[in-house]
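Reading a protein record of the kind used here takes little practice once its layout is understood. An example of such a record is reproduced below.
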Amino acid sequence: MAGESADPRLTPAEVDLAAIAAAQRVDRYLVELASLADSDIDTVVGLVLNGAVIVGRIVSPEAMARTIDEHLLTLLEMSATASSETQAWEDLKDAVSGENVRRVHEDRKARRDMIERHNALCGEERVPPSEMPEDLARAVIADNARVVMTLADAKVFPPGTREPLDVAVMRVDIRQVGAWWMVPADAQTRLATFSFPERS
């Protein structure tokens, strides 16, 4: 074709793959707020999720990890019997206790190492993953593609109701969020200050 550019073109398969990848992208602003929560910088948001309104603080996944660890330890203690009070049983409890929190700490350290390595390699430049070492590229892609965030002190307003359900800790699939906004938080309690307007 006359005047055709010499630049490479995507193959049909690459076009399809790019379209699938683009459709799976999540709201990068929510991803950034979830990343801030990894550094204990909480943000209060309102969400519309499958018809429900949810208001809560985006916090570190450690909040849910700690809740699960406490639940597992409670289950172990409930199932304990006089015959189970052995060293093996104590070793099992030690192994279960805090396991999920430890994994969060390991993930947090791995993320810090990834950021330090990225900064050492790329500085302030925006370098595409295609130009990074393979393992670093995979880590950066995975970090930018997180699809779940943790909310604490959440208030859940089911469709058609004005009285909320109080949820201490919950996980939210960012891909299911239809709309969201920033909510002012009480500086003392760090809880969301949100209510429906009074009907006239």
Summary: Residues 131 and 137 are 8 Å apart (CA to CA). Residues 99-122 form the longest helix (24 residues). The chain is about 40% helix and 20% strand. The chain has one domain: 27-182.
